[in-house]
Queue: 4 jobs
Job 1
Amino acid sequence: METIQLKDPNTPPSDEVLKEVLGTSFDAFDELMKTVRNAPYDLVAGWNYYIDGKAWLCKVQFKKKTVFWLSVWDQFFKTAFYFTEKTKPGVLELDIDNATKREFDQRELTGKLIPLVINVTEKEQLNDLLTIAEYKKRLR
């Protein structure tokens, strides 16, 4: 069973902690963070401990817009993007993995939003993730 990690409010997610929990997936995490912080993405990633979820989560933003959320699991990390019914067709037109599109297309609304979740274990998955992030960043 998958279990979210980084549950201790007194242990912030340092590189050492992340390397231990992510294992071989740390390289993909590290590359993602280095990439999104620079042009053309210019995103800001900030870790916070959320009492309601009892875990550390990383909110990745462009200006005041949340582009995606990142959570750390045992040997991988999850990214969660949220879209509306209005922006859903744009996601389905992106040049990303068809399985990701199918899964997203079948997702039910959570409130007014549709989640697109990607479990990342390797660097090869970052192209799709960055394509989705660029789309989300451009939305009004």
Job 2
Amino acid sequence: MMKALDIRDYKKVIPIIRSADINTMFALAVLERKVEGKVFIDDESSPASFYIQHPYGMALLYGETNKEDFYVQLTSHMLNLENVRNGFEWLQVYPASLYSKMDAILGTNLIKKNLNEPYKQSFFPGEDKKILEYERINFIFNKKKYLAFRRNLKNEHYKIIATTETIFYQLSGSVIPNHFWNNFGDFIKNGIGFTLLLENDFPASTAFSSYIVDDKLEIGIETYEEKQGSGFASMVCSKLIDYCIENGYEPVWSCNSANIGSRKLAHKLGFEELKRVPYYRLLK
């Protein structure tokens, strides 16, 4: 069975999750109590599997177990058979041996998507009742490539400021600071963000730390839909990357393989593709 782990024991799981060779920063943010997530285990006395949920709607299944009742409950959770989720949850699993396990337990409930097809909220017939498998891409930062790009970045003299409390709560979209931090006080104490303002101080684009773990800072970016394609994302992300370089942080970028815009922006900013892992969109 999936048993809730006592929050006092979260810290014991940190070194285990750190051993993974994929980006697990969102899971570590939960374990370090930077956000209020949940952790489930397969066995209280000697856990072998950990299911870590971040409030943004991401989850990590780490480790294999020989307890089939755990997988029965896990399958029920993934298919949302008890209607506990109102939105999608995006799941990564580790290690790679779990990929075949996922195929086996999901069977015909799983659809493997064309990885060159952009993600859409609308579905092909029947897909709304299926788990969809994409890939999550982990990038690595190439400072030399970034600096070459930075030298040629056009400076249009737009106003870029540190993200304020007003902006923090004003922003709307799918990737905004308010989805990754408990509140503005927590964000300003433990994170950082920059916002590009247009006339009347309209926040057109914001780049921010979605997670900071040790010396790594994962970048989140949201641009107002009507201003996408304007180059604002490059400008404001560059401001955040410059901050990382000046303060000794390694900038981190990960995204859904179906997020073509994020992939293009990452490459433009000097990030190089490092690893791809299955990324499952669970049912709501």
Job 3
Amino acid sequence: MSVTWRSGAPPPVVPRGAGHWPRVALRGTLLMLLLLAGVLVTLPLRLIERPVYGQHRPWTPSITKWVSRCVFAILGMAHRIEGQPMTGPGAVVCNHVSWLDIFALNARKRVYFVSKSEVAGWPGIGALARLTGTVFIKRDRREARGQTTIFAERLGLGHRLLFFPEGSSTDGMRVLSFKSTLFEAFFTLNKAQTMQVQPVTVIYRAPSDQDRRFYGWWGDMSFGGHLVQVLGAARQGGVTLLYHAPLRVTDFTDRKALAAAAEAAVRGGMPQDRRGV
């Protein structure tokens, strides 16, 4: 994930009232135990899956979904979906608001995230990303051929890849212009099998007593500070995933047209006051 977008307005100041730190301690402990349990169950299953099935994962995706659903139960956040997640091969693209997006998108339908290569080396997060099958790439058009090879291998296994075309998380009040680079690979792959790209709009609803940007994670905001903010909230809001109709790659002339159509669908799913760039 890349946290580079910056707003003209500063992040909201979130007051820490009575009970903030006890909530942080309780929820934080439960989340650590949950993630540890997920790792301890996933590791031995991967030792079985890898030699028998290779990159195909018949069992461990269910663990990822279960852990992701439990994250929202621990936080007390509502999680709902509208529309129908696609079932065939292809990719999912959506707007990017927070580190919570990873759990929100994994909670209902198994996807494999496409992330920048630097994340693989991040302490803790990199190991979890590798364990859950994240695809690591360099966001460089010169790497297009290598990306196509990686995508072809994973899509051939029936994996649904997910990436954030904005290239950055935001405050959740807008959709940034979609970068089209990663869409190029699907035009090459489509020669072998029909590819689809499903746009998804991620909409966060802040707690009733907080700024509407409460769940947004952007600019110079630290992960630890934002995590403590969410863990300590006395009230929680929720997240809605709006699944749009999949776009057939063959219906578009090039990557820019496909990216523009996906962006329009995601932007159109946002509340009226959150559609700006």
Job 4
Amino acid sequence: MDVLITGANGIVGTAIVDSLGGRSEYAFTGLDVEPHPDRETIVADVANYDELRPAFDGVDAVVHMAVYAPGFVDESWEDILRVNVRGTRNVLRAAADAEVESVIFGSTNHVVGMYEREHAPEIYDPTFELTVDHTDPVRPDSTYGVSKLFGEHDGRFFVETNAYPKRFYALRIATVGPASEDHPYAAAERGVEDGRWERGSDGYERQVARLKATWFSRRDCGHMVDRMLQDDTVEFDVFYGVSGNDRRWLDIEHARDGLGYEPRDDGEEWDGPPDA
């Protein structure tokens, strides 16, 4: 299967290639705005349709992970519009024109982020009785979250009104880290390095509790994408991208039942950072 990954050099794109790149059934092609130092990459901007379009010829599936993900205090609407809205529309147009079968779209947990804002920090407690699944109302917490909802709805529009793509998977990704921070203590440890708090402080422990709930390990991320690439039953559907964390409030039963997703990691299995 020939698979094009947009945003291939990013945190999620590299997690997918690192997890699945050695599999004989896949031939991955990376696309990004900059070349990768170690992998051949098509250099193109998703916001420029003419640059983007040739990369879709001969492709069976597209994993669209190119994104503008700002800090939520100072969001840039113009950048969000250019990359997340126009860029996603361009990806769908190119997939339709090139007759690509499947599109996997990197959405975000921030499309339902107000549930967390409303209930934090109690929501990080494993006994807190809330699970948000694909049927619950969306409650975006940012313009970034709103832009990802556009992508989800545009994907549904394309599969229901065009011959191609035939399948669209909205993957609402929780927290994926780079390979060097693939553990639930990463955010807390960055705060120590930045001088924001000390280990064991309230701020540190809150970050640990949150990430133990939202962690989506790199191998579980790759596994989820594999399950989507192997699926031929979905026309449009929404799945939450999170590991099998005991503290999670995001549902994975829908992905278990519909895709055969079986996460291997649980943030609760960690009792300290790797170098502790």
